[in-house]
Amino acid sequence: MARTLEWKINMELVEEGDTTEARAVLDTGKATVTGRGSARRNPEDADVPLIGDELAASRAMGDLSRQLMRLAYKDIGEAGAGLSGEVEEDAPYGWSTPVS
After folding, report:
1. Where are the domains of the chain?
2. Which of 33, 80, 92, 97 is the most buried (most CB within 10 A)?
3. pLDDT at 97 (0 to 100)
4. Contact criterion met (CB below 8 Å) for 60 and 11
5. What class, spelled out in words, does domain 9-78 have in CATH?
6. Beta bridge partner(s), residue 95
7. Contacts of 35 (CB under 8 A, 6+ apart)
8. 28: nearest Cα among 2, 9, 1
């Protein structure tokens, strides 16, 4: 049976001085995950706000991604398909059943 979902991420960017803070929020219906990121402009660099926005937003998305991966691994374990003590960085992608 096919299934289609649409998850929307709300990205909030706040610039103050040379620092841009980003907050990315995803509501999966089961959990709300919030990623955070920041960027700071070197005072000697040109003032290009878009660069700070891009860096802070990408860092927030990276943080969100890592948290979502941890949730997936937790759900895999709760479904009885644990990864036999492997940490998420070492584990293969996909649902795998530990070898006995």
Report:
1. 9-78
2. 33
3. 47
4. yes
5. alpha beta
6. none
7. 23, 24, 25, 26, 60, 61, 62, 63, 64, 65, 66, 67
8. 9
